[in-house]
Amino acid sequence: MPTNRFRCAAAALLPLLVGLVACGGGGSSTTSNASISTPSAPATAAPTVTMALSASKASVNSPVTLTWSSTDANNCTSSDSWSGAQAARGSKAITPAAGGQFNYTIACTGAGGTAAKTVVLTVPMPVRATSYENKNDIALDDPKLPNLQDIPGVTLESGEQNIGQRGVAFADFLQEGAFSAITASTFYKNVFPGSNPLKWPDSPAKLYFLRKDASGKWTDVTSQLIKTPSERTICVSPGFIEIADMNKDGRPDAVISCTGPDFTINGVFDDSSLQYAVLSQPDGSYRVVMLGVPSIYAHQVALADIDGDGNVDILSVDTGRFRTPIVLWGNGDGTIRVDTTRFPTDMSQKAIYGIRAIPINGKINVVVSGNPTGATAGPPASNEYGTKVLQYIGGKFEVVNDLSAGIPKVSSTGLTYALALDAIYKGGYYYFLRVNSDYTGSAIIKTDATSGASTLLTEVVRGNTSDTSGVLKLTSANTFVSQMANCGPNAVKLTDYFHYQCSFSIPLQ
Question: Among residues 172, 188, 371, 398, which one has the fewest Cβ atoms lying within 10 Å of its Cβ?
Answer without folding.
Answer: 398
